[in-house]
Amino acid sequence: MTNPFEEPDADYSVLRNSQNQHSLWPAVIAVPDGWTAVYGPGLRADCLASVREHWVDLRPSDVAEFLAAVSR
């Protein structure tokens, strides 16, 4: 059995959680609780491009907001 997270020709979706973290997710697997599909399903390369474009701050949003507040 192959790993569904490593199939180059499979369809994927991009998921996002409440902390604005993103995940590349195989389209054949149900979206887990706490995550929302924000792109796809589509080609792995297209989904990775979407992640690179939209997930530019890798910190959880709570951390980013706290650091922004204390630096004012």
Task: List key phrases describing it.
72 residues; alpha+beta; Rubredoxin-like; three-stranded antiparallel β-sheet; 3 strands; elongated; MbtH-like_sf; MbtH-like_dom; MLP_fam; MbtH family protein
Structure description:
This protein has 72 residues and is of the alpha+beta class. It has one domain: Structural Genomics, Unknown Function 30-nov-00 1gh9 Mol_id (Rubredoxin-like), CATH 3.90.820.10. Strands 2-1-3 form a 3-stranded antiparallel β-sheet, covered by helices on one side. Strand 1 and strand 2 form a beta hairpin. It is elongated. The relative contact order is 0.21.
Describe the secondary structure blueprint for this structure.
Elements (H helix, E strand, L loop, with lengths): L10 E7 L4 E5 L8 E9 H11 L6 H10 L2
Antiparallel strand pairs: 1-2, 1-3
In CATH terms, what is the fold-level topology? Rubredoxin-like
Count of discrete alpha- or pi-helical segments spanning 4 or more residues: 2
Q: Largest beta sheet: what is the strand line-up?
A: 2-1-3
What's the mean pLDDT score?
A: 93
Secondary structure class reads: alpha+beta
Q: Can you identify the CATH class?
A: Alpha Beta
Please identify which CATH superfamily we are dealing with.
Structural Genomics, Unknown Function 30-nov-00 1gh9 Mol_id
Low-confidence stretches: none
Count of distinct structural domains: 1
Distance between the termini: 52 Å
Report the major sheet. 3 strands, antiparallel
What's the multimeric state?
single chain
- Form type: elongated
